[in-house]
Amino acid sequence: MTDRAAHPTGADLTRWRGIATDPDADRSRAEDTAPEAVARLRTRSRVLLRDLLRPHRGRLGMAVALLLGQNAAAMAGPYLVMLGIDRAIAPLRSGRTGPLAAVAAAFAAAAVVEYAARRGFLTLSARIGQAVLLDLRQRVYGHFLRLPVAFHERYTSGRMVSRLTSDLDSIGELVGGGIDGLVLAVLSILSVAGILLWLDLPLAAVTLLAFPFLFWLSRWFARASADAWRRNREAIALVIVHFVESMRGIRAVQAFRREPRNQRIFAAVSDDYRRTSLHAFRLIATYSPGIKVIGNVTVAVVLCYGGWRVLGGATEIGVLAAFLLYLRRFFEPMQELSQFYNSLQSATAALEKLAGVLDERPAVAEPARPVPLPTGPGHGAVAFRGVRFGYRPDAPILTDLDLAVPAGQTVALIGPTGAGKSTIAKLLARFHDPVAGTVTLDGVDLRDVADAELRRALVLVTQETHLFGGTVAENIRFGRPGADDAAVEAAARAIGAHDFIAALPDGYATQVHRRGGRLSAGQRQLVAFARAFLADPTVLILDEATSSLDVPTERLVQHALGTILRERTALVIAHRLSTVEIADRVLVLDGGRIVEDGPPAQLAAVDGRYAALHRQWRDSLA
After folding, report:
1. Structural domains in the chain plus CATH codes
2. What residues pair up with 414 in beta bridges, in sequence order?
3. Of the given ranges (7-21, 158-172, 324-338, 411-425), which has the lowest mean pLDDT?
4. CB burial class (10 A; 0-12, 13-18, 19+) of residue 288?
5. DSSP code of residue 374
């Protein structure tokens, strides 16, 4: 029987294409390629480029001067050939070698100037380019860190990797080896055009006959390659997205034997990347030979017409020779421009993507005039007043929620999935702002609290504990970076994690490996509790933070929770009633509303939803 699951469907590929594009381009490919959308992308990338180059204006001016010097020295060659033929060869018959020696010396001087200017420009441009790349890389990374959780929930890690790797690499390739050739080619074309008009106007007029063909071919190539490279950047992002997601979920991939299917999906997205790259190179294969054909035909016409003018005495043979040499220097850079222009288009498309990320404004904005939170003991009162919120406008989660939690009280939130428990936690942590109403801490609207101050006052511990690469001590110290070893150990002892940490091969210096893979789920959660205890927040949120613990570890944590929650406000979201029992107050939610509210013992004594859950829990322990 054929394994249908091993073959990627159209829906699979559509899904991968959807997650590879930018957030503001997720609606449709037609909208993404609309003229106004393309114009907006280009405008914001130009603004970003100007902003990146502004600190380097002085060095850029010097780089331009060096390029002009190099171009002037290069342009002197054909002119010196003309002087050598028309002014220096004839005097040789009479034994005068001075004019020819002067021309030769001028050639040597021009070569030295060109070398020095080229060397200086490459050194200076490399410094500018690497400084710009460093600035851009740090901006993008820092911006990703500052964007709210809501952004990261819809923007895949693969896309972030693509922005910081392949997109920056494309810009680096242009900065490192293409931009000087591009600018020099443009300077050469403009300089040669002016010199041709000055040398011989009739010959220049004949040359102008080629310009309509050059203009049409170059305009077609510019438009076609811009679109091709934009699609190419999307295609490589798609490859990275699929690779990162597959590797992050490698256990699930292998457990459900999805290797053949993922391999075929990867082959499909890789083939998309191959096809977009081939299309871009086909454009080069049309443009570059086309320029060469136009150039050769133009040279042939100029040679015939110029020879006729030389025979008629209308011009000198040295002028014709210089004209033909300059003409070669006009068309050769245009052929090279196809290579440089591809690098430019690839980098432009990458810059558009990065500008899109940097233009992404946080949904949770930092207040313009932050209001400080009260300090000292007795603080931590939380209030929800008339709060309405939904992740989509057409699907509200909370509707006119009113809730007051006095300072120092531990409140447990229980209810079915989708009742709004985690949403309350996210609003209190200010991962989102309510659509209507206010969430306050000690009477201050969270929208008026500086983000750094809110993070010091409030800590969220979730079921999905993330440990960073490093030692156990470094992961605990994440709660308070300046804490010494004694404070780290005290936090671990308070939470009940010291014994298992001490039993590790290197104790607190044990490397936890990637994402804490060296520790069990329960041990990772205990480290997270120690991290929260060390942070010493005013408000603590436990979002199903004990759900991954086994029974022995849960019992170990229960007594530690009393230490963590003492003298601080806490919201505890839990399905296990053993955790709920330690709360001062229980809220039962359903459909975004509070349907029961009271101490756990009181609610267990009356006929209600909590009492039913409590009876089921008691029966399960029998």
Report:
1. 20-359 (1.20.1560.10), 382-621 (3.40.50.300)
2. 588
3. 7-21
4. middle
5. P
